[in-house]
Amino acid sequence: MAIQSSYQQSGKPKERKTDKKKPPGNDESQLLQPEAQVEETEKQEEKLRPHRLADYIGQTELKDILNIAMQAAKARKESLDHLLLYGPPGLGKTTMSLIIASEMGVNCKITAAPALERPRDIVGLLVSLQPGDVLFVDEIHRLSRVTEELLYPAMEDFRLQITIGKGKSAKTRTIPLKPFTLVGATTRVGSLTSPLRDRFGLLHRLRFYDLDELTQIVLRTANILQAGITPSGATEIARRARGTPRIANRLLRRVRDYVQVKASLPITQELAGEALEMYNVDSCGLDWTDRLILTAMIENFHGGPVGLETLSAAIGEDAHNIEEVYEPYLLQIGFLQRTHRGRVATAAAWEHLGYDNPNRLPLFTINYSQ
Ligand code: ADE
């Protein structure tokens, strides 16, 4: 009795999906970067942000938690507890912080850890806060040690503990602060020190948005921009937006341009698909770099496992960028797995890129004639 394996030996793609050479003037690769923010885009984003919790689509669990926490704090006439928001970029951490301030009727000051290098930067900010104000600190895992240590008593007891002078003549001064809410945002919660993490009363992970939520966001934004769109047109954009509102809104603006020039509004599913193909955004929302990562894993490392640093060297993309910007979505859609031996491209990734997967479990056919 002979057992024949019917799986294909060749891992070669039916059609190669990623040219190794980066497309010239590859601006469209920026289209899918949650962090790609030119000043103009930031201004446009501002116009599109919801200002009330009720207008915020998605993140239902967080909204429920915040609703309760804010009502309770308001009833007690206290500031809201400090909040740590973590998760991939572009999921609404800043927007949520601005909404909290507006719901609580206070100001929101926005900064990022790299801007708080010197003690006087954080001291200046903290003493300027009014009762109940929100201080939003992005990339909070990057705080310098001195700044972080100044934050401990500020968060705990609303006081600053400052040391003046050095050595034996050094004196400590305590400066009282107005009660405030620190909203910390990070993409790397594991990099936070535990004393800092423990001082947040509320910790929440923002999750990717589902197709329905993103479709609603695209429809809402199109309405603000007065860009006619059909529901299926909105879904087509949502499908390619990597679970991220910031990307959905950016794709919508590019599709609107395309449709205005090449056809006429409204944006239909067909036109949206056509425009996004032109911008090199495929049917799963993968851009050129995503495809390069997966293609390198498949072609150079037989699909993995491959270590992050090795992969980074193979494609010439920063390891940190691969881990923070590209991987979360590839993991989310099941195209990549992290194992203790390294990264692995899944069968779905092989199939999406048009490769026959030799690692697929073989289908055995039993030949009884021998
Ligand atoms: N625009 C960007 N993110 C949004 C959200 N979560 N809800 C509504 N509009 C948005």
How many beta-strand segments?
A: 11
- Terminal CA distance: 5 Å
How are the strands ordered across the major sheet?
Answer: 3-4-7-2-8
Q: Return the structural class.
A: alpha/beta
Chain-averaged pLDDT: 89
Strand content: 5-15%
C-alpha Rg (nearest Å): 25 Å
Helix content: 40-55%
Description:
With 370 residues, the chain is of the alpha/beta class. It is built from 14 helices and eleven strands. α4 runs parallel beside α5, α7 (211-225) crosses α9 (245-262) and α9 (245-262) crosses α10 (269-278). The model is unreliable at 1-12 (pLDDT under 50). The protein binds adenine. Residues 48, 50, 56-58, 92, 95, 217, 220, 245 line the site of adenine (ADE).
Key terms:
single chain, 370 residues, alpha/beta, 5-stranded parallel beta sheet, two-stranded antiparallel ribbon, 14 helices, disordered N terminus, binds adenine
In short:
This protein has 370 residues and is α/β, with parallel strands linked by helices.
List the helices and strands and how they pair.
Layout: E1 2-5, H1 39-48, H2 60-75, E2 83-86, H3 93-104, E3 108-112, H4 119-127, E4 134-138, H5 145-157, E5 159-164, E6 171-176, E7 181-186, H6 194-198, E8 202-205, H7 211-225, H8 231-239, H9 245-262, H10 269-278, H11 288-301, H12 308-315, H13 319-332, E9 336-339, E10 342-345, H14 347-352, E11 364-367
Parallel strand pairs: 2-7, 2-8, 3-4, 4-7
Antiparallel strand pairs: 1-11, 5-6, 9-10
Bound molecules: adenine (ADE).
Adenine binds at residues 48, 50, 56-58, 92, 95, 217, 220, 245.
